Amino acid sequence: MICNRTYSHLAVTESTSNVTPCCQFHNYQKDQVAALGEVSSLNEVLKSSRWDAIRKQIETGQAETQCSNCFSQEQQGLESSRTYYNRRVHLDGTFELQDLEIALDFTCNMICRICKPSQSSKWSQAASLVEQLKQFDPHHYSMANGGQAYASDIQRVLGNTDFSKLKRIRFVGGEPLYSRYLVEFLERIDSHAGLENVEISMNTNGSIIPSGEKATLLHKCKRLDIQISIDAIGDLANCIRPGVAWSKIEQNVPKWVQFVGSDNLIQIHATISLMNMNRMQELADFATASGGYLTGHKLFDPAYLRMDQIAGLDSWRIIGSNEWYDQFNGMLGSELFPHQLSRFVQAMNLMDAHHGIKFSDANEEIWELVQDQLNR
User: Fold this and answer.
1) Angstrom distance (rounded) from CA 331 to CA 309
2) Neighbour count for residue 347 (Cβ, 10 Å)
3) Eight-class DSSP state of 20
4) pTM
5) Which of 253, 184, 254, 260 is nearest to 222 (CA)?
6) Which of 10, 67, 199, 208 is the most buried (most CB within 10 A)?
7) Which of 188, 282, 175 minimizes the C-alpha distance to 235?
8) β-sheet bridge partners, residue 226
9) What is the CA radius of gyration of the chain?
10) What single string gives the DSSP state of each residue in 325-341?
11) Phi, then psi, of 129 in degrees rounded to 5
């Protein structure tokens, strides 16, 4: 088994300042990966002994823990991140940095229920809520985000990195368009590789449309693919992703379609969890009507939000009611995840009190199913 990502791709997306082969590489020991504070450039990481070890572990099937998401999807006959990348990108015998996924910082204007506090600066305004939520998952609700150390380390490392072979870059956050480093970094990529030779994709919450220098630089790239993170519409959207009103996001989606133009892609990308698993069809309809299309991925953490806690016929009744069924196929898997539904109820109540919007009102069907499961 080979993962082409380990030869040409790096991810710098974690607030822990770790550099990993991809954003789905997890449950690793710290000495298995690189840290921003320990390297001078990203180029050296791909050629390091640590990456040699990672490649060998994957190729000999010894990385099932770190690569469990891909292993699980492939065992179910689904396309994983590994197989997608292998199909799209072929090895050229070098260890050059061609593909980068990066969070320049974690500045954000939303406080999503699915998000890690370390991934959004907005959570700093909800410190008391975070302390209460730590009882359910201390790791997920850690507030540690590297702060100034992350910002200084990543700027130093990026300043020393040769991007001349770069072909693709993916921006995540936080909200990438709020990063004060975005323009400077795009200019650096332009001077090294020429933006006209680089494909850019970006995760955004849809609350802001680029203008000025940001717009000029993004329009210069070879291809621009935008993923707008939307998990629901209407009241459920306001419930799951507080911070910016759904009405504002709804108004901005057509503007994004116009911004990227007909030659590029707009995806509405959903994180599918227990909170929204029954509302995908209306989101798919919204995406199509807006000139985009719906994609999604299954949420794994925190575990109390996983969609595969609803047993048997109840879950398939929900999924099967969607024309979007094929996209869901296999997401639930064949085994029921040990449920943490009591934690789900407690966490929703805590977030409801903080945000001033009740999940039970925004998604009555799921709330009733959860209560039914708990009473069995």
Assistant:
1) 12
2) 23
3) B
4) 0.88
5) 260
6) 67
7) 282
8) 202, 266
9) 20
10) HHHHTTTS-SSPPPP-H
11) -65, -40
What 3-state class would DSSP assign to 225? strand
Q: How far is residue 110's CA from residue 122's CA, in Å, rounded to a whole number? A: 6
DSSP single-letter state for residue 99: E
Q: Which of 227, 209, 214 is nearest to 264 (CA)?
A: 227
10 Å Cβ neighbour count for 245? Answer: 12
d(CA 159, CA 67): 30
Q: What is the pLDDT along the chain (376 residues), one digit of tens a residue?
A: 788 888 899 999 888 888 988 887 876 777 788 889 899 999 999 999 998 988 888 888 887 788 887 887 787 777 788 888 888 777 777 889 999 999 999 999 999 999 988 889 899 889 999 999 999 999 888 876 556 678 889 999 999 999 999 999 999 989 999 999 999 999 999 999 999 999 999 999 999 999 999 999 999 999 999 999 999 999 999 999 999 999 999 999 999 999 998 777 789 999 999 999 888 888 989 998 998 888 888 888 899 999 888 765 455 555 545 555 555 555 555 556 678 999 999 999 999 999 999 999 999 999 998 998 898 8
